[in-house]
Amino acid sequence: MRSCPLRARLNTLTLPVTAVHAQCELLISTLAYVGQRDEQAAGATCGQAMAVLAIEGAQILTRTDCGLAERGGVLGELDQAAPQVKRKIVEAAVACTAADRQATTAKAELLRAVSASISCPMPPILLG
What we know:
The chain has helices at about 5-10, 20-35, 40-55, 75-80, 85-100, 105-115.
């Protein structure tokens, strides 16, 4: 059986979670600050989300080092991750934004934007 050239090319474009460690740290830190005003609570939230990704030694970035608008390439780099890594990134993002158990339209839209940016579909979110 011959190997498909497209499949071989796609396999070279997928990155493991270790290759996008810094990008995940920035994304999750940014999301933690969106949901938490307190530094300590944001750190705990970030830790929970990073546990979903099984990234050891990850720490929350400072609030001034966060923000996706200034670092627009981050989501593009995460889009190059392997599909199973993208699913884990979305799971971690959901864990991060849901840590305070307060669902808001802004958080739901942010999650939807992140998942769309990394080409990982997300089911509809029902706010109640």
